[in-house]
């Protein structure tokens, strides 16, 4: 809206407080505290409350219930929002270095010769910035830098490790580290995937087909 509110059924999206973890709900616009109903939609997909400087976050409680809260922006997939009528993610093949295809088998990810209709070379691209194997859409492409320094498929948890952004220059940005997807060792028989600082190498260029 022109007044920086987000409305549904004539009511306003409203934060109950300005601290991390404060719940967000739908409230009557006229009686709500004005600052609690103001939101800024950021270019990276975050929705920010200016008063608290916190962003809208999907938070799962101990019962498995997803609640909306405000929290510090850690660039997690659970903090990414886009207005769209499309609820089914597009499925694509991701092609990289030397025309090889990105492939997932269980948790491992590598490049391999492209094979038509190979489901292990297909990826569902979600609007929250996650990239998922179609046959296991509870699994997300992740880079955690936890000793191995490689990209793997792990259980989606809404964290920052699983958020990616396809960029206009052909790179795939890992939003948390601000590095781009890259081939770890281009001479390997089955090259694994990592992230690196952008340096214009052709191992960092990807496209969807």
Provide a quick synopsis of the model.
The protein has 209 residues and is an all-beta fold. The chain has no helices and 19 strands.
Write structural notes for this entry:
This protein is an all-beta fold and 209 residues long. It has two domains: 7-73, Trefoil (Acidic Fibroblast Growth Factor, subunit A) (Trefoil); 91-208, Trefoil (Acidic Fibroblast Growth Factor, subunit A), CATH 2.80.10.50. The chain has no helices and 19 strands. The protein has strands at residues 7-8, 11-15, 24-28, 40-41, 47-49, 54-60, 66-71, 91-95, 101-105, 108-112, 122-125, 131-132, 139-142, 152-155, 164-166, 172-174, 179-183, 193-196, 207-208. The strands form six sheets. A four-stranded antiparallel β-sheet has the order 4-5-6-7, with no helix packed on it. It comes from Gossypium barbadense (Sea Island cotton). This is Ricin B lectin domain-containing protein. Residues 88-209 form the Ricin B lectin domain.
Labels describing this entry:
Ricin B lectin domain-containing protein; Ricin_B_lectin; 4-stranded antiparallel sheet; 209 residues; Trefoil (Acidic Fibroblast Growth Factor, subunit A); 19 strands; Ricin_B-like_lectins; mainly beta; 0% helix; single chain
Instruction: Estimate the global geometry from the Cα principal axes.
Output: elongated
Number of helices: 0
Poorly predicted runs: none
- Report how far the terminal alpha carbons are from each other: 36 Å
Count of spatially separate domains = 2
The main sheet orders its strands as 4-5-6-7
Task: Return the average pLDDT rounded to an integer.
Answer: 93
């Amino acid at each position: 809206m022109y007044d920086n509110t987000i409305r549904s059924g004539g009511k306003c999206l409203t934060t109950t407080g300005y601290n991390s973890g404060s719940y967000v709900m739908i409230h009557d616009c006229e009686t709500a505290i004005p600052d609690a109903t103001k939101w800024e939609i950021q270019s990276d997909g975050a929705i920010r409350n200016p008063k608290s400087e916190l962003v809208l976050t999907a938070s799962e409680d101990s019962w498995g219930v997803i609640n909306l809260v405000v929290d510090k922006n850690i660039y997690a997939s659970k903090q990414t929002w886009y207005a769209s009528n499309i609820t089914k993610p597009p499925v694509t093949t991701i092609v990289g270095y030397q025309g090889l295809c990105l492939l997932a088998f269980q948790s491992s990810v590598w490049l391999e010769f492209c094979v038509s209709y190979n489901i292990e070379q297909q990826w569902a691209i979600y609007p929250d910035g996650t990239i998922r194997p179609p046959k296991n859409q509870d699994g997300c492409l992740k880079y955690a830098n936890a000793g191995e320094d490689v990209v793997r498929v792990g259980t989606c948890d809404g964290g920052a490790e699983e958020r990616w952004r396809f960029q206009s220059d052909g790179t795939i940005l890992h939003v948390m580290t601000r590095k781009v997807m890259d081939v770890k060792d281009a001479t390997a028989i089955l090259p694994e995937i990592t992230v690196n600082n952008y340096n214009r190498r052709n191992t960092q260029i990807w496209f969807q087909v």
